[in-house]
Amino acid sequence: MSEIDAALMEKMEDYNTKVEKIDLELAAKRNEMMLPLYEERRKIIADVKHFWLTVFRNHMGLSQIIEEEDVPVLEHLTDVWVKHDPKEIRSFDIVFTFSDNGYFTNKELVKKVVFKNGEQVAEPFTINWKDGKDLTKSKRKKGADDDVSDSFFSYFKDEDITIAHFIANELFPDALSFLFLPDITRAYANDDDEIDFEDDDSEDEGSVDLSGEDDDEEEEEPTKKKNKK
C-alpha cells in the first residue's frame, strides 16, 4: 500500500470519529426505544422456569464458563438486566437478580463496565458467600502449576470485559432466541473437540457492538475449559 501523508490520514481519522459518534448516538437511541420491550419481555418470561440458566447454557461463549457446580446456583437466577449510562452508552451495569439460596446473601450481583480514558474497564464485584459455599476458591488441578477456579462466579472478581460484551451485546438483546437453541453444554458434553467460535455466523436482533473494537479484529474469547473425559 502506498504511503499516506499526514494531512490525508488526519482526514480519515476525522471521518472515523464522525462515524463512531453517529454509531453511538444510534445505539443510545435504540436502547431507549427497546427498554419498553425489554420490560415486556421481563413479564413474559417471569414464569419460565430457569429461563436465564437455559439461555446462558445455550450461548456458545457463555456455556464454556459454566461448571456443573454453578448450575444449582444459577437455578436461582431470576432476572438479568443491562442498565446503560444515559450519558455514555459504552458504560453499563449488568444486574443479576437471585432468589434466596444457600450460597450467598446478595440479592443482586452487579458487573459494572465503565468507559474511561478511551477504553472499557470492568470493575470487580464482591460476592458475600456463605460459609463453605464459595465456588470461586482456587482448586488444585492435577498436573497444574497454579491453583485455578473455572466457576462462572469467578467472572465477578476479574477485570475481563469479554463476558460482559457477550451478555450486553448478544445475550440480553436477543434472549428469547437463545431460549430455543439446543443446550450447548449438554450437546458438547461427550465431544472431545472444543467449540469453534469462527464458525458462529449467527446475528442478534440488531444489537450494536459497543466494545469499541474494529470489526476486522478477531474477537477475544473467554478462557476455555479443558475437555472433560
Structural features, described:
This protein is of the alpha+beta class and 229 residues long. The chain is 30% helix and 15% strand. It has a four-stranded antiparallel sheet with strand order 1-2-3-4.
Strand order of the largest sheet: 1-2-3-4
Give me the secondary-structure category: alpha+beta
Percent helix range = 25-40%
Distance between the termini: 49 Å
| Average predicted local confidence, pLDDT | 83
The residue ranges in which pLDDT falls below 50 over 5 or more consecutive positions are 192-208, 215-220, 223-229
Order of helices and strands: HHHEEEEHHH
What Rg is obtained from the alpha carbons, in whole angstroms? 19 Å
Name the beta content range.
5-15%
Q: How many helix segments?
A: 6
Number of extended strands: 4
**Inertia-based shape:** globular
Biggest sheet, in brief?
Answer: 4 strands, antiparallel
What's the short story on this structure?
By secondary structure, the chain is of the alpha+beta class. It is built from 6 helices and 4 strands.
Keyphrases for this structure?
disordered C terminus, 229 residues, alpha+beta, 6 helices
List the helices and strands and how they pair.
Blueprint: H1 6-44, H2 51-57, H3 71-74, E1 77-85, E2 88-98, E3 108-116, E4 119-123, H4 162-171, H5 175-179, H6 184-187
Antiparallel strand pairs: 1-2, 2-3, 3-4
